[in-house]
Amino acid sequence: MTRKARVRVTGRIDNAASATITIDATAGLIGVRPFRRRREYTLPLAAVAQHIIYTVVRAELSEKRKGRKRLARRGAL
Do residues 6 and 21 lie in contact, with contact meaning Cβ atoms separated by under 8 Å? Predict the structure, then answer.
């Protein structure tokens, strides 16, 4: 039996100052419970990983496009 990992993070999460994140590797779930809230938001780890990859790739493409626009303005392209 594997224990669940619990981590407290700070920042504005659902209008709360912090939240507790619970990772259950055996079930493949991640849960977030904002401080002093009763509801816990739970998602599969695969969905969270997919969202992270999508966000990072989208940000990288945006930076790449900005770089191309700068070069095009200078007449380098």
Answer: yes
Domain map (residue ranges) of the chain: 5-74
For residue 25, give every residue at least 6 positions away whose Cβ sits within 8 Å of its Cβ, in sequence order, or none: 2, 5, 45
Q: Quick check: helix, strand or coil at residue 43?
A: strand
* Mean pLDDT of the region 67-76: 73
Residue-wise pLDDT for 46-60, tens only, equals 999 999 999 999 999
- Model's pTM, two decimal places? 0.70
- Cβ contacts of residue 22 below 8 Å, gap of 6+? 4, 5, 6, 30, 31, 32, 33, 40
